[in-house]
Design a protein that fits this description.
The two termini are 35 Å apart. This protein is α/β, with parallel strands linked by helices. The longest helix is centred in the middle third of the chain and has 33 residues. Helices cover 45% and strands 23% of the residues.
Length: 387
């Protein structure tokens, strides 16, 4: 797999299944040492995901994370699952994304008590910025956005240790809240994954759904009710984040001029857009090529942009007829395009934000057709200007 992929790791089977349900056609990939991964794409996109199970604990998580990084060379590693909330301000079902991770079991024992000596890993800036953007859009969750019970994304520290924390009155519980009072959640794997990412130069993000309050209620009926919901919410946000990470990488990895040249080589045609101008083509030799000239001006407002979107439908149809898009991808692309047109037709800042997000998903869907990606790029940019 190329580095245009994301590794998602979980500690529990329940968490693993929550992510797996969002993947299309996962296939088994076995590491030479026996570790089993499943590789698929996020449904409705071309975002490649390698999914693995680490089991509980920072040590196991670190080993499997390093193994996954070496095996897949991913653009990012996301650790996804459930956690306990340390403070009541975080609701059950909410998602916490780590701004930084504490390995809180580092310390020195002295006559007057245990002195904290934590290790800390900060989340990559670019991933944090993108996650904050997705949280503001607030359209990632399965429930309808704006519903009173819709989960929220919170950003803050996560404490990772070696024990299951299930008390608010034990000596260790009080010590954690005293020395790591800014931590929103507590769990057992994030420090191991963060260390593996640090040593291997791989960006790591920790995404946790809150399933309990680390207050003695673990294994209660309420906990059993909230665990699958919290895992599903974490999986929903993490897979959306993976899709957007891939979209941003594709947008920034290649300069615009290089994208155009790549399009020319792969599709063996040149598309030029000109408005009230003369276009000349000079070449020593041209073989097996066609030149398409369009006279439409660049989209400068909502009406022009809607017109460009309608025009993009013709591009999709042509690539489908030529065999560059299979039937399923073509139908999915048309669905996204229709959704983008509906949002654009409302012509409000929020609707334009949704248009941009839908077009980014569409861009990921047609990523294997450079000509379509190049044609869509200015439309996405123009929609972003209106958002």
């Amino acid at each position: 797999m190329s580095n245009g992929s994301v590794v998602i790791l979980t500690a529990l089977n329940l968490e693993y299944q929550a992510v797996r349900q969002r993947l299309a056609d996962p296939l088994v990939h076995r590491h030479e040492r026996g570790t089993r991964f499943e590789v698929g794409t996020v449904r409705g996109t071309s975002c490649n995901v390698a999914l693995g199970l680490t089991s509980k604990g920072n040590h196991s998580a670190a080993v499997i994370a390093e193994r996954a990084i070496q095996e897949f060379s991913p653009m990012a590693v996301l650790f996804v699952g459930v956690a306990g909330a340390l403070w009541d301000t975080t609701r059950l079902g909410d998602v916490v994304m780590a701004s930084h991770v504490y390995a809180y079991h580092g310390g020195t024992s002295e006559d007057d008590g245990l002195k904290a000596r934590p290790r800390v890993w900060e989340a990559p800036h670019g991933i944090s910025q993108l996650a904050s953007h997705l949280a503001r859009l607030n359209d990632w969750a399965d429930p309808a956005p704006g519903h009173e019970d819709a989960p929220q994304v919170r950003f803050g520290a996560i404490a990772a240790g070696e024990i299951v924390q299930n008390s608010r009155i034990s000596a260790e519980a009080k010590w954690i809240r005293q020395h790591y009072n800014d931590a929103l959640a507590i769990e057992m794997e994030a420090a191991g994954v963060a260390q593996a990412g640090h040593l291997n130069g791989a960006p790591v993000a920790i995404v946790r759904g809150i399933s309990d309050r680390a207050d003695g209620t673990k294994n209660s009926a309420e906990d059993r009710n909230w665990q699958p919901k919290a895992a599903a919410n974490a999986a929903a946000f993490a897979t959306r984040l993976a899709v957007e990470l891939l979209g941003e990488q594709e947008e920034t990895a290649m300069p615009r001029d290089d994208r155009v040249r790549s399009t020319d080589r792969l599709d063996r045609h040149v598309s030029n857009t000109a408005h009230n101008s003369t276009v000349g083509v000079m070449a020593g030799s041209v073989t097996g090529s066609s030149v398409h000239l369009h006279t439409a001006p660049k989209a400068s407002g909502p009406t022009d942009l809607i017109s460009e979107l309608n025009g993009f439908r013709e591009h999709l149809g042509r690539h489908h007829v030529e065999g560059a898009l299979d039937e399923d991808t073509y139908r999915e692309a048309l669905t996204d395009l229709d959704s983008a047109l509906r949002s654009a037709g409302r012509n409000t800042p929020d609707s334009w934000k949704r248009t941009v997000m839908t077009l980014r998903r569409l861009r990921g869907l047609v990523a294997e057709c450079p000509a379509l990606v190049a044609a869509l790029a200015p439309v996405v940019a123009a929609a972003g200007d209106l958002a």
